[in-house]
Amino acid sequence: MKPIDLRVAEELGVRVQQVTAAISLLDNGATVPFVARYRKEATGALDDAQLRTLEERLRYLRELDECRAAILDSISQQGKLDTALKQAIDAADTKTRLEDFYLPYRPKRRTKAQTAREAGLEPLADALLARHDQSPDRVAHQ
Fold first, then answer.
1. Packed helices 83-91 and 48-77: angle between N→C axes, nearest 10 degrees
2. pLDDT in tens, 29-40
3. Cα(80)–Cα(61) distance, rounded to whole angstroms?
4. Domain-wise residue ranges, the chain
5. What is the distance between the alpha carbons of residues 68 and 64, in angstroms, rounded to a whole number?
6. What's the farthest any 2 CA atoms get from each other in the chain?
7. Is the distance from CB of 38 to CB of 23 less than 8 angstroms?
8. What is 4-107's CATH superfamily?
9. pLDDT tens per residue across span 78-90
């Protein structure tokens, strides 16, 4: 997979050095207007619109990479990650595609009933349903 600065440079049609310099400035707290006005020499004269697009894509691609890492970690913890799935996840270029790959492996929500079953309360629930005319305390003590 290509580094973020290379992907952004290709999308904007500018040199990688321009993108790398702009990313560095933005990561160090500079704002887009400041970089556009006062750091033209560092960014190779990227204009305001290009810098705003760069900033948006940078944020999106970083979030995409974080999401990809979390999905790979989750699936590998389940023991279901194979090379074909890993390659497909690595090749996904949008969050939607990542979510589509992750959907069959996403852990389901745990309900209160599942928690009660795991705690061993299912026989008690069955007994309460079978003997609804008796007191729940009496059924629980039997």
1. 160
2. 999 999 999 999
3. 25
4. 4-107, 111-142
5. 6
6. 85
7. no
8. RuvA domain 2-like (1.10.10.650)
9. 999 999 999 999 9
